[in-house]
Amino acid sequence: MPPEEFEELIKELLSMNDAPCTGKIRRGHLRLFILPEEQHYWSPQLSVSYEEHEKGTLVRGLYGPKPNVWALFFYGYAVFGILAMFASMWDWHSLPWIKMLGHFG
């Protein structure tokens, strides 16, 4: 099946009233989402790229969280890393919250 036919088939399936998901289609790329009434902040998405191949259409997919969830993890780890870096520059025993834990002193 050529990529153009594949794209038309996906558009047709997504336009059905009882489609199990929603999606956005761009030339050579589509993203599928869980229906809005069933979505949560952490709901995943399926990102699919498709291109012409000698035997028809080559389809590749990546299933994962939405970009805003990745950003939350990135900034969380960045803040933790920066705090850990500054905390390691000080004497750990002088930090009051470390003394409260009782494991380091």
The percentage of residues in β strands lies in 25-35%
Would you report the number of β strands? 4
Q: What is the SS-derived class?
A: alpha+beta
Individual helix count: 3
Radius of gyration equals 23 Å
Helix % is 40-55%
Whole-number average pLDDT? Answer: 82
Q: Tell me the series of helices and strands, N- to C-terminal.
A: HEEEEHH
Basic shape: elongated
Spatial order of the strands forming the largest sheet: 1-2-3-4
Largest sheet: 4 strands, antiparallel
What is the straight-line distance between the termini? 67 Å
Unreliable residue stretches: none
Number of domains: 2
Write up what this structure looks like:
Strands 1-2-3-4 form a four-stranded antiparallel sheet. Strand 1 (21-26) and strand 2 form a beta hairpin. The termini are far apart. The chain has three helices and four strands, in the order αββββαα. The protein has two domains: 3-65, no CATH class; 68-101. It is an alpha+beta fold. The model has no long low-confidence stretch (mean pLDDT 82).
Quickly list its features:
105 residues; 3 helices; 40% helix
Question: How do you describe this structure in short?
Answer:
This protein has 105 residues and is α+β, with helices and mostly antiparallel strands. It is built from three helices and four strands; from the N terminus they run αββββαα.
Q: How are the secondary structure elements laid out?
A:
Blueprint (H helix, E strand, L loop, with lengths): L2 H13 L5 E6 L2 E6 L9 E10 L2 E10 L1 H23 L6 H6 L4
Antiparallel strand pairs: 1-2, 2-3, 3-4
